[in-house]
Structures are given as structure tokens and as C-alpha cells.
Amino acid sequence: MQSRRTVHGPKENQTRPAVDPLFRSAALAYGADVIGVVLTGGLDNGTAGLLAVKDCGGITIVQDPNEALAPSMPLNALQHVAIDHCLPLDQIGRFLMTATAREVGDPNPPPLRADNNSRCASL
Fold first, then answer.
1. How do the domains of the chain map onto residue ranges?
2. pLDDT under 50 in the chain at which residues?
3. pTM of the prediction?
4. How far is the C-alpha of 76 from the C-alpha of 60, rounded, in Å?
5. CA neighbor of 80 nearest in space, from 59, 42, 52
6. Which class does domain 19-100 fall in?
7. Are 63 and 38 in contact (CB under 8 A)?
8. Alpha carbons 12 and 6: distance in angstroms, whole number
9. Residue 60, class by beta-carbon neighbours within 10 Å (0-12 exposed, 13-18 middle, 19+ buried)?
């Protein structure tokens, strides 16, 4: 039996699968519980999806484009979406661990939008 791969259907941002449809569907299904992360990559894949995450109340994160091997994706997101956090790669994992470790109903959850990391604000 041949395995099914995601090779059918239209391309978005010259690729299939693309992260934008994933982010959009997650944002619609889970709203403020979604965290969208865009890392290094080409073109503008991820920008429209992060906008959907933001519009639905989720948290948006991009890798600092100054350290990205291919900075186009994080740069485009920063130019078109009010990104919550622009972080170096080595800080994204820690942030996600903190953000997802909160207990339901915790009266003192960690601040998830405390800073915008101005390192990227000038881009």
C-alpha cells in the first residue's frame, strides 16, 4: 500500500503544504489558545496566517530575522502584522514552555505579551 502524502490540491505561497492555511484553521478553531511561530524561510509564507492568529486573539512570534538563515518570512511578518514577540531562536523554546505550562484558572499566569523585544521593532 502506498503512503498518502500532501501533494494534491492548490499551492499557497508557491508551496504545499503551506503554513498559512494551518495557522488560519488553528486560529478559527482555537482562537486565543493558538500560538503561531514563524522561523527562517523564504517569501512571505506565514504572514497571512499570523494575521489570522492575531485577529483571533492568539499569540504571534517570529524568529529574530537578524539571525535567521533566510530572513524573508520573519521580516514579512514583522512588516505586516503587529507581532507580539520577536525572539532569538534559542529563546523561542523557553517561551513556548512557559506559555503552555500555565494551569487553567491560574490567578497569576506568566505575562505572555509583556514585551515586544524591541530588537526587531526597527525592521
1. 19-100
2. 1, 113-119, 121-123
3. 0.75
4. 13
5. 52
6. alpha beta
7. yes
8. 13
9. buried
